[in-house]
Automatic annotation (TrEMBL):
One of its GO terms (biological process) is methylation. This is Methyltransferase family protein. Gene3D superfamilies: Vaccinia Virus protein VP39. Residues 3-251 form the Polyketide synthase-like methyltransferase domain. SMART domains: PKS_MT. GO terms for molecular function: S-adenosylmethionine-dependent methyltransferase activity. Keywords: Methyltransferase, Transferase.
Amino acid sequence: MSSTYIHGFSASEQARLLAQADALASVVFGGLDLADVRTLLEVGCGVGAQTRQLLMRWPHMQIHAIDQSPSHLAAAAEHLRAARADGQVRLTRARAERLPLAAAQFDAALTIWVLEHVPEPAQILAEMVRVLKPGGRVILTEVDNSTFRFFPHNPLIEDWWAQFNAVQRQSGADPFIGQQLAALAQAAGLTEICVTPLPIVSSRQTPQRRLGLLRYTRDLLLSGADSLKRAGRVSEADEQALLAEFAALEARPEVDFQYLAVRLCARKP
């Protein structure tokens, strides 16, 4: 995944992932019940941001979290130090396409913001299914970047977003993977497939939430700046213009924006 991860692996990216997990926790975990899950595989744990959120909500879980990035895993080890010491979390460096794990051992397997970054999501899902117990659950929470909107239209932000998606697709990843989750689950032989849209919507009625989401969106777009500049898609001047635009939008509560993520839940027969 390292060559297709548009955001990079810097310390600032690690901090962004932690902030993102906090900002979107109510969206990502709203309506999700994992009370019956004792053993969970988290594929693509990154810096442990979502692992921490999982443990806050379901402290009974035993989580085996994997990632390919040494730097992200080192950060996860630090952020999850207490949980690791208690034996609640195990971290393993591994490729999700070929898990170094025995079959049929987990109650559930989960990804959050992972499959958009990989060229072979079907292979990863097949591996997740392999290590699940019969009747085990699959939970995929992923992006559909085609749903990103500002009202009224904002050409500067929307053009940056288009370049962001183009670079990601050129790398072999899929920023619209949310549209494919049901088909992937069906092809993997899963049952009880349920797809739920997860709206991330600003509102002038909740100004602090709007401000937090606006800054999250700014940081998300700017996290791809180095990749976009290397690809010749944007310039330093474009980056500064984007920063200025987001600063101006903080003082314009009439501007709304929205985004729909997608959650798929299913079971292994």
